[in-house]
Amino acid sequence: MNDGTNGTPNILVITSNTGVERDELLLPLQRLRERGARAVHAAPDKARVQTFVHDTDKDVTVDPDIDLSAASADDYDAVVIPGGTVNADKLRVRPEAVELVRAFAAAGKPVAAICHGPWLLVEAGLVDGQALTSYFSLRTDILNAGGRWTDQKVVHSCVDGHTLITSRNPGDLEAFSAAVAGATFGTVSML
């Protein structure tokens, strides 16, 4: 929901408390804020989030802005799901994360996921009939869930009234961040 003062979109970025791919969390937050969005980071526990580089090397810790249980799709214009193998695996078994992304989709608000983030979309039942991309190892999971996997930097798909924006890996972050900003500021075209 835009804040009403100047059309500033409110964007929620959700992660687990560990295993998050550093750049897939920090770069979208930075790019969205640079464009004027109010980007809020939520995690299951309001404790520090441990980021990693390439899933194996511990990097910086980040304090989330809010607890995941305090997040509501009613308060935001879009949700972003960063990758990291452990991050995505932990999120997809959290009922509150699954229900939250379903609520965004049901409200017709963009749901964006990068790298391993689409695992949460599979768990939430949001990929059937959709075109999307991900880290290549999720291809079979997406196909088995009824999605159409493609190897592109960014895939923007809208089926059954909900929009998915997906990307493959950290190399696609600039394009992914631009697509999320475009969808929330109303300037993106379908790919």
UniProtKB/TrEMBL annotation:
What organism is listed for this UniProt entry? Nocardia jiangxiensis
**The name this protein goes by in its record:** Type 1 glutamine amidotransferase domain-containing protein
Q: Does the keyword Zinc apply?
A: no
NCBIfam families from the entry? PfpI (TIGR01382)
Database matches in InterPro entries: C56_PfpI-like, Class_I_gatase-like, DJ-1/PfpI
Gene3D superfamilies in alphabetical order: 3.40.50.880
Going by the UniProt record, its keywords in alphabetical order are:
Glutamine amidotransferase
A Pfam family: DJ-1_PfpI
Annotated DJ-1/PfpI domain residues: 11-180
The similarity annotation says: Belongs to the peptidase C56 family.
Could you tell me the superkingdom of the organism this chain comes from? Bacteria
